[in-house]
Structures are given as structure tokens and as C-alpha cells.
Design a protein that fits this description.
Elements: H1 2-20, H2 22-26, H3 32-62, H4 66-98, H5 105-128, H6 131-136, H7 139-153, H8 166-170, H9 176-203, H10 215-242
Length: 252
């Protein structure tokens, strides 16, 4: 009974997160709808992870065959790459506004966990010959390394960062919006992938074969990555028009 309730809540949160995900993207960045929908999305992602974690443990412990244990291990990895980018994206935005550090023990732990989980998953995916798992395994290391790199360079507003001296000259860090966009869009790709893979296979019992079996694994990335590139280009174009020119010393 309790397991059924947890599964129902988990699916409801996952479906809700995939629906709400599109609202902050369509809304004006920084506007009331963007902020409100973004906060709701974050809560739904955390609830999805909180209800998915015990399900993964239960599935692994009660698995009657190796395939179920592999599924449980992959579900645990998905939870990691859901939570870590969202936590990073939210922390980047809050740190930029409040003038606090991005790095923290929890931020570092989640970033390292994403890196380790991706490496471990890739090794086992190759051993298991589970190629869809191998396809998604780089997400954790890439996002974890990116988060650690960003947090080590961005300390407080007014500091010199990887984005050049523009932040130093104005007292603001113009790169945080791009970092926030990348992190949240990656989390959106992950939750859409999880919903398609587990929703079609486990909930609806729809089994695809041949090349079609890769569609749930690849479709979110095929839609999400071009969207990510477009959003980043928009942000860089906005940055180019709003940031003041870098001051240079006059030549003697």
C-alpha cells in the first residue's frame, strides 16, 4: 500500500515537473511568472527525487533478476543528475543576488557524487552492455565538473571571473544567468528522459524494439540540447548589449 502511494506521488511529481519546466522558459526571465514557476519546478524535482530514492532501494533489494537491479542502479543515477543541476542552478542565482559564495560542502558533495555516479555507471553499462545507460553516463561528470569549476572561480559579486573583467568593473557577475540556464535545462532533459523511459516501459508497459527502443532515451536530448544552445546564445547576446565596455588603460 505504502509502496503504491509512493509510486503514485513519484509519478505525479515527475509529470508535474515536466509540465512546469516549460513555463519558466516561456516566461520573461526574472519576471514574476518565471520566478514562481521556477520555484515550483524545483520543489517538484526535489519531491520526485525524494520519492524515487526509496523506490530505487526497494527495487534493488527485492529484485528477482539482474535486469531489475540494473534498472534500480540507473534510477539512482537519474536521481543524482536531477537533483545536482537543480541545486547548482538555484544556488548560482541566489549567490549572484545575495553576494554569497557558490561553493558549499553540500554543493561540492553533490557535484562529486554526480561525477562519481557517471563514471561508475559507464563502467557497469559497458560490462552489462546496456548502451542507453552508457549514453547518459557522461551527464553527471560533465555537470559535476562544470559546477565545481564555476564555484571555484565565482566567489562574490565584483570578483574577477572566467567571464572577464566586466563583472569586476560593474560589481556584478554577468555569467551567472548563463550558468543558471544551462543547469536548469540539463535537469529538464533528465526529467523528460526519466519520464519517457520509465513511464513508457514500467508504467504503460510499452516495449519498443530495434532502433525505436532508443527514442525515449534520445528524444529529450534531441529537443533539449538545441533549446539549450538557443537560450545560451540569447543570453550572450543580451549580455553583449547590456554589459558596459571593458575599461583599458590609455596607451602612453
Amino acid at each position: 500500500m505504502a509502496l503504491g502511494i509512493a509510486l503514485a506521488v513519484h509519478l505525479a511529481c515527475a509529470v508535474g515537473a515536466t509540465a512546469v519546466f516549460w513555463m519558466p522558459i516561456a516566461a520573461r526571465k526574472g519576471g514574476p511568472l518565471h520566478v514562481t514557476a521556477g520555484r515550483l519546478y524545483v520543489r517538484l524535482i526535489y519531491l520526485t527525487a525524494a520519492t524515487g530514492a526509496p523506490l530505487a532501494v526497494w527495487l534493488f533489494a527485492r529484485a528477482a533478476e539482474p535486469g531489475a537491479r540494473r534498472t534500480a542502479a540507473f534510477l539512482a543515477y537519474l536521481i543524482t543528475i536531477l537533483v545536482m543541476p537543480v541545486f547548482h542552478g538555484v544556488r548560482v542565482a541566489r549567490a549572484a543576488r545575495a553576494g554569497t559564495r557558490v561553493a558549499s560542502p553540500l554543493h561540492t558533495a553533490l557535484s562529486l557524487a554526480a561525477i562519481a555516479a557517471g563514471v561508475v555507471l559507464f563502467v557497469f553499462a559497458v560490462a552489462w552492455r546496456e548502451w542507453p545507460y552508457a549514453l547518459l553516463s557522461p551527464v553527471g561528470p560533465l555537470m559535476g565538473a562544470r559546477a565545481l569549476r564555476y564555484s571555484s572561480r565565482w566567489i562574490f559579486p565584483g570578483s574577477e571571473t572566467a567571464y572577464g573583467n566586466r563583472g569586476k568593473s560593474t560589481g556584478k557577475n554577468f555569467g551567472w544567468r548563463e550558468e543558471h540556464i544551462v543547469a536548469m535545462l540539463v535537469s529538464g532533459i533528465a526529467v523528460h528522459t526519466a519520464l519517457l523511459v520509465f513511464g513508457l516501459g514500467r508504467t504503460l508497459h510499452l516495449q519498443l524494439s530495434g532502433a525505436a527502443s532508443y527514442v525515449p532515451w534520445l528524444l529529450p536530448a534531441l529537443v533539449g540540447l538545441p533549446l539549450l544552445v538557443w537560450q545560451v546564445r540569447k543570453e550572450r547576446a543580451r549580455h553583449a548589449t547590456t554589459a558596459p565596455p571593458v575599461r583599458t588603460s590609455p596607451q602612453p
